[in-house]
Amino acid sequence: MAAGTSRKISAASARSHTRKPKAKAKTSSKFSATLSGIFKNILLVAFVGLIAIAYQKIRPPSPKTCGSADGPPVTAPRIQLRDGRYLAYKEYGVPKDIAKHKIIFVHGFDGCRHSVFPLIASLSQDFIENKGIYIVSFDRPGYGESDPHPARTAKSLAYDIEELGDQLGLGSKFYVVGFSMGGQVVWGVLKYIPHRLKGAALLAPVVNYWWPSFPANLSQEAYKLQPLQDQWAMRIGHHLPWLTYWWNTQKLFPPSSVIIRSPVVFSKPDLELLQAMSASGAVDELELAVPRQQGEYESLHRDINVGFGKWEFDPTEIQNPFPDDEGSVHLWHGESDLLVPASLQRYVASKLPWIQYHEVPDSGHLFIFAPGNADSIFQALIS
Q1: C-alpha atoms less than 13 angstroms from C-alpha of 120 in its C-beta half-sphere
Q2: Phi and psi torsions of 334, nearest 5°
């Protein structure tokens, strides 16, 4: 063909040349879309898997309820509450049918119905018999042999105590005494069933650092006195209660020092008392397992969530249950308590002038078990 000669291209040939690139682009586009879809599915499956793993990690196990197939046996007398739950109890002192003073004792964190024994042991037998003292101690929900109560609140526990008194025939009025976390429970009793009380005593009651009446500087100062790991445990219980189980069972950070029974929370007077109580047999090593035997979540962890959670009321706004002085309310606290700083109890007492505040010098959180203190506490209550 001579140079310069123009080459004619048919329309069909032109179309065939233009189609081929389009076909290749279309195939490439389909392949990319397929890869993108597979990648998205992989990401989705991985995300769902991570969520499932995280859920299993933060989800607490079911409690081993006493009397169930996989739970501990029932060994204590129990009452059945209106909602079907069982509450285990143990009686001390004189028989209730001849008792002059009938007292319900509320145990503390990581305690059970047996926790009152060292207190009873430190009471003089003459005082118990001469004054006609009857004491019933019970396992709070989820502890010992009492059924768990997933919906537990300060209010529900007050009504549990009322029903316990009714079913045991304690009469229209009775005394309530609570120690540590059990002392905190007494605030709910004063709020919701004051008409059932002859008197009440709060012994080293745990405080909630988020009660709205606390001045910010006072509560923060007391809060920062706690070990860092306990600050976190309380903070999670207040803001993220659904993470409490995970936080106190994971291995990355230290859990609550109280849960692991670290001596760091006790003052020198407390440690000396514990040593003396252990030597005397007042502390039974076998009974240390009883509080947690149904699992830690519905006992210890539930206590954290309820005790440091969001309350329906502020204790410093409770009205005097005995306006005519027909009874009395006492708040006892150790001056050197490291677990619950005395500064907060002083503030509460200043806001509630009808409370009789007793601060025990040179004493820690366990002051109630020191010789002579039990007689003073119960004498003041029944006077």
Answers
A1: 21
A2: -80, 135
Q: How many CB atoms lie within 10 A of CB 232?
A: 17
Distance CA 355, CA 327 (A): 11
Mean pLDDT by 10 residues, the chain (383 residues): 48 50 59 65 55 62 93 97 97 96 98 93 92 98 97 97 98 98 98 98 98 95 96 96 94 94 95 88 73 96 97 96 96 97 96 97 96 94 93
As a whole number of angstroms, the distance between CA 318 and CA 311 comes to: 13
Contact between residue 332 and residue 360 where contact means Cβ atoms under 8 Å apart: yes
Q: Is the distance from CB of 245 to CB of 59 less than 8 angstroms?
A: yes
pLDDT digits (tens, 9 = 90+) for 44-60: 555 554 444 555 567 89
C-alpha 29/C-alpha 24 separation (Å) is 9
pLDDT one-digit tens code per residue, 198-221: 999 999 999 999 999 999 999 999
Name the token pair of 194.
């004051």
For residues 108 and 79, what is the distance between their CA atoms, to the nearest angstrom? 20
Helices 342-351 and 216-223, axial angle in degrees (round to 10): 150
What is the spatial distance between Cα 197 and Cα 175, in angstroms, rounded to a whole number?
A: 6
